[in-house]
Amino acid sequence: MKIYERASAKINLSLDVLRKREDGYHEVEMIMTMVDLADRIEMQELPRDTIIISSQAGYIPLDEKNLAFQAARLIKDRYDVRKGVYIHLDKKIPVAAGLAGGSSDAAATLRGLNRLWGLGIPTEELQVLGAELGSDVPFCVTGGTALATGRGERLQPVNNPLQCWVILAKPPINVSTSEVYGKLNAAHIRNHPDTQSILEAIRGKRFDELCHRLGNVLEEVTLELYPQVRQMKEVMERLGADGVLMSGSGPTVFGLVSKEAKVARIYNGLRGFCKDVYAVRMLP
Ligand SMILES: C[C@@](CO)(OP(=O)(O)O)[C@H](O)COP(=O)(O)OP(=O)(O)OC[C@H]1O[C@@H](n2ccc(N)nc2=O)[C@H](O)[C@@H]1O
Ligand SMILES: Nc1ncnc2c1ncn2[C@@H]1O[C@H](COP(=O)(O)OP(=O)(O)O)[C@@H](O)[C@H]1O
Hints:
Blueprint: E1 2-20, E2 26-46, E3 51-55, H1 67-78, E4 84-90, H2 101-116, H3 123-131, H4 137-142, E5 145-149, E6 154-157, E7 165-170, H5 177-183, H6 195-203, H7 207-213, E8 215-216, H8 219-225, H9 227-239, E9 243-246, E10 253-257, H10 260-271, E11 276-281
Parallel strand pairs: 1-8, 3-4
Antiparallel strand pairs: 1-2, 2-4, 2-5, 5-6, 7-10, 7-11, 9-10
The structure holds 4-diphosphocytidyl-2-C-methyl-D-erythritol 2-phosphate and adenosine-5'-diphosphate.
Adenosine-5'-diphosphate binds next to helix 1 and helix 2.
Domain GHMP kinase C-terminal: 199-275
Keywords: ATP-binding, Isoprene biosynthesis, Kinase, Nucleotide-binding, Transferase
Family: Belongs to the GHMP kinase family. IspE subfamily.
């Protein structure tokens, strides 16, 4: 049998860091939402007890470093599944971009193998498993819009009636999440986003208010390390996006746009600066 799962990209509408914890992680407060840019994952049972990963993307690991491999191994070990699986990752989400491509592949693998092998694992349990693979994986298991706390694994769903365009532009650099968190001085953050007001703007469908309040404290680090990301924000603002922010640890910058008539102009303007540009919708 062969099954398919979509692994969507996420953006962070806000990202606040409250403190550094003793375990090395940071206590965060983030509002995350999915957009309709997705990897397509094919999973097929194998007669031998083995995990094989392939992908058309030449720049991701295909061995045990791949997050989809780790997800498959975890579910096999934890539920004592003595079966094999072939997993093909049709990558569309740019890698190491702040869009959680690897985390979403891992989450989709957990959902898919739960179906393929008829394991009946409840969603909350898949999220607990996902947290062992990465802080963003539990959110990616369900998607939607959520407030994430803890190190990102504690989730509260948020009702999000907003529908808008999201323009993504990834400067041609790779950013390491652990380096960015490592360089953040959590005790001296200059501008904390007002998470509660952002949540109220989303729930109240106040798009302009949301755009005005977008905030990500990791910009303090990434924009200093990589001036290209600051430039990308400036270009997107100049082209007329309604709200502009870096996603996650970067380097992808996203612009929220309410009017479809503006999307093509912003998209075409950005293509003059950068190859990786996408015009997508925020997923309900
Ligand atoms: C910054 C964010 C925002 O959504 O996303 P990305 O930029 O990666 O997409 C996440 O917090 C990233 O989540 P994820 O990529 O799953 O991180 P993990 O694999 O758990 O951790 C990678 C490294 O980041 C640091 N880390 C991660 C999460 C956290 N709350 N505090 C941390 O300090 C740790 O140094 C850890 O070793
Ligand atoms: N299935 C996968 N897709 C993309 N990257 C992966 C995958 N598995 C492991 N990785 C590795 O994970 C790292 C982070 O990738 P990704 O999840 O795309 O970025 P981010 O955490 O910034 O959103 C990269 O260095 C990449 O090599």
